[in-house]
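Morning. Coffee machine broken again, so started the prediction first thing and wrote up yesterday's gels while waiting. Chain of 76 residues, entered below exactly as on the submission form.
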Amino acid sequence: MKEMLEILVKNLVDNPDKVVITEKENEKDVVMELSVDPSDMGKVIGKQGRIAKAIRVLMKAYATKLGKKVSVDILD
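Came back before lunch.
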């Protein structure tokens, strides 16, 4: 699941080498913490949070296919 988020985010940002994803997994829940370069934060969040919401929707759909629940937290 980490690879899926990494592919999505690295294609959005200008500094893909500074994308850091931390994955914390329980039995059914997965919390993914996303950190990007401060200059790329706007590209990941988007106007009114639309891109961030789209990333979360895609990840939830992917996690549902795997039988898990996921939440994506974007860190400052």
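The longest helix spans residues 50-65. Going to sketch it on the whiteboard this afternoon.
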